Amino acid sequence: MLKKLALLCILALGLSTSITTAIAQSQSTRSLPALVQTEIKKACDELIVLKPGFVTIKDINGDGVDDYILDYSNFECGGNSLLYCGSAGCLTQVFASLPNGTYVKVLDENVRNIKFAKIKGRSAMILDLHGSACGRAGAAACVITLFWNGQTFSPAN
User: Fold this and answer.
1) How many domains does the chain have?
2) Has residue 155 been placed in a domain?
3) Does the model's pTM come out above 0.85?
4) Burial 21-59 (b: 16+ CB within 10 A, else e)
5) Which H or E element spans position 148?
6) Which of 45, 64, 75, 131 has its CA 20 to 30 A from that of 13?
7) Strand partners, 109
8) Which domain holds residue 63?
9) Rounded to an integer, what distance in angstroms lies between the CA atom of residue 111 and that of residue 71?
10) Does 38 reside within a domain?
């Protein structure tokens, strides 16, 4: 019994090392905020490959601090690159910086496209979603614009 337990511990440690190694080989995550690193690791408990374009770093809320966009169309889990994509688009996670130096996840949705812009001086996130998000057929256009309010992105008031 103890030999089996020891073997399982060794295998678990090896799997953990493989995941960490795969992430490190495909794209360094050490410089990413802890919240972003945690989300990447939660997405897959198998071999992870982060392809170019998975992480986009840009200031999306206008505070001069880098924010992070994860595009799961460029993510591979256990050899499967289509796990997070479908007719509603691909999983996209967005992490915005807060004044206290932490980050908040402001989007965790399947999207067909995402853009960031300034609209009337306000930072905005423009989402192209599955039509059902707007009460329409799946193929119908559904574009939603959300504005930064200092804590998250939300519809205009």
Assistant:
1) 1
2) no
3) no
4) ebbeebbebeebbeebeebbeebbeeebbbeeebbbeee
5) strand 143-148
6) 75
7) 92
8) 2-111
9) 9
10) yes
